[in-house]
Design a protein that fits this description.
This protein is α/β, with parallel strands linked by helices. The chain has helices spanning about 10-20, 40-50, 60-70, 85-90, 95-115, 145-165, 200-205, 235-250, 270-280, 305-310, 315-330; strands at about 1-5, 25-30, 55, 75-80, 120-125, 170-175, 180, 215, 230, 230-235, 255-260, 265, 285-290. A 7-stranded parallel beta sheet has the order 3-2-1-4-5-6-11, sandwiched between helices. Strands 7-10 form a two-stranded parallel ribbon. A two-stranded parallel sheet has the order 8-13. The model has no long low-confidence stretch (mean pLDDT about 95). Bound molecules: nicotinamide-adenine-dinucleotide and uridine-5'-diphosphate. Uridine-5'-diphosphate binds next to α7 and β8.
Length: about 350
């Protein structure tokens, strides 16, 4: 039996595909490659010794999806495929509503027709929006603040309605905090196109000399050092969280919602310091104005995932920094098509 991983060539999907394969699962990837490269499949094979089946297709293409289900004995789906840049979602909301909401609806229709009713869905801490209640617990109301977050909340609601409409579905909604780091081999990692929006890829690109300095967005927040605080989670811990979630929905029917985070807040300046200590690389930076839409501080209450599926993070901030740097060092220009 096989697990379909949509978006499996992307950052989190590729690490999850590697972890699943290492755990003895058969992996089938569907990815449109809108934000990734096919050579990631070679890297997963190099890491695990087994090559996942790969289909280049958009999840909104129901016929292409149906053919995948008819070719492989799919027993469950992990749905990563989607668009994820908050700023872009403000500029192009219709593209986000289409990829994220229509994409999920198309996948669910095909699953329904094929009789596959186990799904793990990539949601985000961004669904919580602005709240004073920190750490975030899963029972907080959803009040997303931007189009990207609204697409994630909409899919969560769609999944909840579907679950209640029909018996037999077993669904895990995972709300990720800030995924960072890379596989310790340096073979797979985060490879953003263009100028990185996110902190960690920006830091690693500064460390290898691809960018001159990091801009720290805001030094006057009401936090201990004035910079923003987030919950950074090693992508390998996150990938293992998906294996745990699969175990949960395979072991029982239900609709489960879990935060995947470390439960610890780290500031931007702490991250810069940890990176330099772990890698020996200086990261020149300067304090810049605040970035629109950033919240000062939040982190996860990760205790429910520990209680329900015996999952918690194991890797340290130093592991995160070392592994992220190793990927960037081995792939200074990201994934390049000759390898
Ligand atoms: P990513 O862009 O690296 O991976 C997403 C993959 O999906 C890419 O390979 C892309 O080519 C593919 N894709 C996009 N739209 C598609 C479509 N319509 N059909 C088929 N394939 C499509 O992103 P990621 O960081 O690996 O994120 C994976 C999932 O996790 C996304 O749903 C994202 O919203 C969610 N998430 C990410 C973060 C984060 O900070 N990285 C945080 C919370 C949630
Ligand atoms: N950040 C920064 N400089 C950058 C990118 C990000 O100071 O070049 C800060 C950002 O303001 C936020 C934190 O780093 O406080 C994490 O940002 P990221 O975009 O990685 O994730 P987010 O928390 O927005 O999901």
């Amino acid at each position: 039996m096989a697990i379909l991983v949509t978006g499996g060539c992307g950052y989190i999907g590729s690490h999850t595909a590697a972890v699943l394969t290492e755990a003895g699962r058969e992996v089938v990837i569907v990815d449109s490659l809108v934000n990734s490269k096919a050579l990631v499949v070679n890297r997963i094979e190099a890491l695990t010794g087994r090559r996942p089946a790969f289909y280049k297709a958009d999840v909104r293409n129901e016929q292409a999806l149906a053919e995948v289900f008819e070719t492989h004995p799919i027993e469950g789906v992990i749905h990563f495929a989607g668009l994820k840049a908050v700023g872009e979602s403000v500029a192009q909301p219709l593209a986000y509503y289409s990829a994220n909401i229509e994409g999920a609806a198309a996948l669910l229709r095909v699953m329904q027709r094929q009789g596959v009713r186990r799904l793990v869905f990539s949601s985000s801490a961004t669904v919580y929006g602005d709240t004073d209640i920190i750490p975030y617990t899963e029972d907080l109301p959803l009040q997303p603040m931007n189009p990207y977050g609204r697409t994630k909340a909409a899919v969560e609601w769609m999944l909840t309605d579907l679950y209640h409409s029909q018996p037999g579905w077993s669904i895990s909604i995972l709300r990720y905090f800030n995924p960072v780091g890379a596989h310790p081999s340096g073979l797979i990692g985060e490879d953003p196109a263009g100028i990185p929006n996110n902190l960690m890829p920006y830091i690693t690109q500064v460390a290898v000399g691809r960018r001159p300095e990091l801009g720290v967005f805001g030094g006057d927040y009401p936090t201990p050092d004035g910079s923003c605080v987030r919950d950074y989670i090693h992508v390998m811990d996150l990938a293992e969280g998906h294996l745990a979630a699969l175990g949960l929905i395979e072991g029982s029917h239900g609709l489960f919602v879990h935060n995947l985070g470390s439960g610890r807040g780290v500031s931007v300046l702490e991250m810069v310091k940890a990176f330099s200590e772990a890698t020996g690389q200086a990261v020149p930076y300067s304090i810049k104005p605040r970035r629109a839409g950033d919240l000062p501080a939040y982190w996860a209450d990760a205790s429910k995932a520990l209680r329900d599926m015996n999952w918690r993070t194991h890797r340290s901030l130093a592991d995160i920094c070392r592994d992220a740097y190793e990927f960037q060092r081995q792939n200074p220009k990201g994934y390049v098509e000759t390898t």
